Amino acid sequence: MKIYSLKNDILKNKHPYFEVDLRNGTNFFNKFIGGSYFKISGNKKYQYDFEINGNNIFLGKGNQCCFVSIENKKANIVWFVYHKYCSVKKNLSENQGTKHMFYHLMKVILENFPDVEYFGLGDDTKITCKGNNIELKYYYFLKYGKLYYQLYFNFNPAFRDGNISKEKYIDNLKIREKIKITKEELLKIYQLYSLTYPTSDNEIRYFLTIFDENIMLVIHFLNKISKEYKVKYCLFFYFLTKHIFINKFHSSGLPQTFILEKNELAISYLNHKISII
Question: Among 26, 42, 158, 190, which is least packed, fewest CB within 10 Å?
Fold first, then answer.
């Protein structure tokens, strides 16, 4: 198994621990990461650097892509972050590459901690849009009725957090099927958006042209927005989905944490047909 050092990359790609140390005067980076050497694993297409430090697993881009903490029989995925340089050789693709990294992380966990029975994580999925980190959870829920890890990796909501209600989550699913938005509401949200971000008449003009009547089902509205315009007008698009959710749904009915049992991992893996060998 290949070994290589990442010391030369520290200044180019600041590790999250390093940034915390700069802010708080702590020494996490040198204690846990600095001077370490990392193993390489993967297949012919994608390979990742990884390190196991006690009950902690770090994987990808000098430990910046994935961090897992093992506690009893649970693998807590503290962070799982896409970056094209998470793979050592070939750049990681956003779609299939991200799935490959996820399942390879599961493989590393189970090979080194075979007693793990289930995996847990929080949904902090974001997209970079014109220099801003934008939460995706509102869009995913409105469009699909599921959040990112539910949709792509078959995780299930965990309702152990007292702030999240299973009943309100179920009610939100029912609301989603029939919720509507009007042109007037769209314009009000755009006015609010224009107080925060630079605006363009083309943005609101495009979204208004989608309406073929004064009121539309939100699901129908989102389905009519093309991928091209979702990228071109991403700031307003995601601002809009967030405010639709805030105004029309139960905030305590949106899951924050998710779990996947080990016996469900095989089903999730087969559904995506990802080769991690």
Answer: 26
